Q: What sequence folds into this?
């Protein structure tokens, strides 16, 4: 009896302990499953106590050291590459490398600042600014960030509301089978068209938010100048040209940048290095583990092919004369080329329009945006959509915008939702300035 009691008590304790730790217990026919524990945590990347360092390179030795460091370590996320003396570079340092990294900075006497001590706090705050996927798409606004489903739902809502002006477009399917949806806003069939692409880099959430803001402004603004833009130009806008990556940033890793194509042990091509224009010649990688992996070949990715095909079959038909790609961050308005320091044939015009746009932003919000060719403004890179649009598709006005924050941002790509409205407004002001200036020069005749 006593033995039985002790045995039974032990069994109960064992079951309770296992249940508390969430272990499923299978024991014969009578008792099947015990699962009283809390569900396991989601499969989500975390950045607790990751730090953002901003380092400055004062000599060649430091540059070479950091080039080596970038090659060696996947615990350090470089935002750009070490290239030149005087350059400042932000690096996200994994928690377990902080001591090691700080020692390196001291040993090689690098000037630096710590911009953020716990990156996860930024992400947690940011995730709190996302409205649930289950909401009705009519609740879409520019005070929150939204899932892909809500963005697409909102586009459908707007198309129903403005049936004479708006058409929903479908460019094709992504690697994981998601539609790449956009809209066409057309007042007159003969208008010249402006094409806007955003979200090619998944983690740059401000870009799709800005694209939808622009759609909304064109449809609802009371400003006579904006109404004129909506009437005299047709607008083709694809807010999310990397839907798989965008979804992944909400569900698994806020810092994901590429698409989700599988390469053995790792995933993702940097779609903005995959375009068939001087592909993989500079500022990209042949290594699938890298954030700027150019892909196995030029135009290898489904998302790239969708966009190539759309532009090729519409550039003449729709008279697309302007191509804008929205990215973040660094506050830059850049035009081709990215792959070479050689100048495009209309360099002076693009420089002039870019400078006017930067001045318009300064007047609106006081923010400093820099304008110049992509090569000379941010860093050399090849296989980008803008270079392809300008050089291969022959679209004369082509820009890549890096939206807020500043180059030494403490938030990196995790821009607070309160900045959506002013950032999007700045971007639209810049586009408006560029289009009006180009119009004056006869680009749309
Ligand atoms: Zn980007």
A:
């Amino acid at each position: 009896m006593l033995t039985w009691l002790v045995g039974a008590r032990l069994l109960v304790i064992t079951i309770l302990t296992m249940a508390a730790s969430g272990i499923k217990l299978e024991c014969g026919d009578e008792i099947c499953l015990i699962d009283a524990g809390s569900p396991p945590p989601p499969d989500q990347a975390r950045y607790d106590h990751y730090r953002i360092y901003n380092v400055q390179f004062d000599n060649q030795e430091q540059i070479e050291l950091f080039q080596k460091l970038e090659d060696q370590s996947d615990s350090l996320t470089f935002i750009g590459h070490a290239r030149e003396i005087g350059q400042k570079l932000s690096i996200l340092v994994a928690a377990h490398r902080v001591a090691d990294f700080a020692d390196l900075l001291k040993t090689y006497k690098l000037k630096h600042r710590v911009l953020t001590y716990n990156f996860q706090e930024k992400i947690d705050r940011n995730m709190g600014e996302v409205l649930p996927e289950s909401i009705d798409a009519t609740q879409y606004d520019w005070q929150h960030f939204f899932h892909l489903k809500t963005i697409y739902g909102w586009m459908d809502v707007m198309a129903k509301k403005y049936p004479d002006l708006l058409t929903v477009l479908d460019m094709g399917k992504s690697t994981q089978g998601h539609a790449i949806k956009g809209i066409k806003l057309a007042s007159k069939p003969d208008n010249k068209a402006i094409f806007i692409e955003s979200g090619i880099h998944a983690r740059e959430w401000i870009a799709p938010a800005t694209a939808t803001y622009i759609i909304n402004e064109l449809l609802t603004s009371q400003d006579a100048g904006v109404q004129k833009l909506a009437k005299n130009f047709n607008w083709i806008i694809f807010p999310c040209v990397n839907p798989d990556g965008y979804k992944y940033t909400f569900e698994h890793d806020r810092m994901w940048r590429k698409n989700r194509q599988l390469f053995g042990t790792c995933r993702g091509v940097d779609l903005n290095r995959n375009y068939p224009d001087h592909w993989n010649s500079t500022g990209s990688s042949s290594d699938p583990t890298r954030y700027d992996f150019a892909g196995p070949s030029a135009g290898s990715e489904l998302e790239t092919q969708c966009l190539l095909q759309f532009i090729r079959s519409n550039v003449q038909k729709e008279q697309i004369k302007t191509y804008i790609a929205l990215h973040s961050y660094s506050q830059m308005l850049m035009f081709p080329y990215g792959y070479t320091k050689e100048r495009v044939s209309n360099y002076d015009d693009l420089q002039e329009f870019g400078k006017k746009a930067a001045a318009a932003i300064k007047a609106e919000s006081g923010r400093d945006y820099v304008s110049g060719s992509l090569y000379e403004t941010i860093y050399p890179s090849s296989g980008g959509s803008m270079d392809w649009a300008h050089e291969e598709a022959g679209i004369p006005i082509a820009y890549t915008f890096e939206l807020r924050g500043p180059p030494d941002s403490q938030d990196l790509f995790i821009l607070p939702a309160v900045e959506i409205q002013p950032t999007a407004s700045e971007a639209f002001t810049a586009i408006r300035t560029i289009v009006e200036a180009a119009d004056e020069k006869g680009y749309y005749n």
